[in-house]
């Protein structure tokens, strides 16, 4: 069984569905509202667990009702929560999501996720060292991402960085990462105005750019490859990239090979 450790965020998603996305100063009528456990780290952990991996989560929630719901969701999906701690007096992270016009817009409030510090991660070192793959995202402090990249390199544990939300990523983290999975927008922020084909060639079988319904793009050392996405009826795009990351990590940890994964 693949052993996956996810170091990252958890939140409660507050999801509004509307036919139209409001502009500045505009009010529109919504069609529905729901709350569902989410957060990039939590989404990836649940996806990996549903695919049969042994998944441990390292993260923080608030000591509020949302935090308890997030913990219940982990346990219902067989994610190990030994290293998910409620932060006293702190709210859980939230994601405020508008589903409109066939896509989503998201505002994230990190709250308790800011307590996923290097020292906090170090308390779970034994779990990390036993992992086949570590997954990271950027809804936790940047210093923690840098620390985990060095930790994984020191112990020769492969790690996958999903650089979302988009921000400039230190070159040291890019160099140490085993796999990097930005979408097109995130890749543009990471690598500036450099042509994507040149960047892909620089990181063969390492940089995987997700392109929504078009699939994923990477360079295999000889040529640029596009793996097309499955054509489905779109219900909700929230968490699609996270699901990809969780599934990709499980397939790699199971030894299926890069192209198959």
Question: Brief overview, please?
Answer:
The chain is α/β, with parallel strands linked by helices and 261 residues long.
Descriptive account of the structure:
The protein is an alpha/beta fold. 31% of the residues lie in helices and 27% in strands. The chain contains nine helices and 13 strands. The strands form three sheets. The protein has a six-stranded parallel beta sheet, sandwiched between helices. A four-stranded mixed beta sheet has the order 3-2-6-7. Helix 1 crosses helix 9 (240-253). The radius of gyration is 18 Å and the shape is globular. The model has no long low-confidence stretch (mean pLDDT 95).
> How are strands sequenced across the largest beta sheet?
5-4-1-8-9-10
Number of strands: 13
Helical residues, percent: 25-40%
pLDDT averaged over residues: 95
Task: State the low-pLDDT regions, or none.
Answer: none
Shape assignment: globular
Q: Structural class of the secondary elements?
A: alpha/beta
Gyration radius, in Å: 18 Å
The number of helical elements comes to 9
Query: Separation of termini?
Result: 16 Å
